[in-house]
Amino acid sequence: KQWYQRRVAITAGTNTNTELLEHLVESKEEIFNESIKEYQLYISLVKNVLKHRDQMHITRDFYTETILSKQKDLEKLEASEPGKSIATFFGKSKEQVKKEKSTDCDSALIPLL
What we know:
The chain is mainly α.
């Protein structure tokens, strides 16, 4: 009979410990899940920021290349001899042709700046 009582006491204690451990695991699991969710939100935010940064770099590179191209065109125009233009062949003055080309290049550069 004493052996039986010890067995019942051990079983009761084991059951109580099991229930307490299950409750402890559930409470810690909720806290852990909240931390994981917060971390996932943080990760998605960082990904979006990096995508936006990459897009801004691509845009900046495009405009930089375009500006450099237009500046080279403008330098070529300023260095070229106005007498070699087709427009001068059709009767426009050299100064007028140079001024029109310069205005075209400037108007193409202004929106990019």
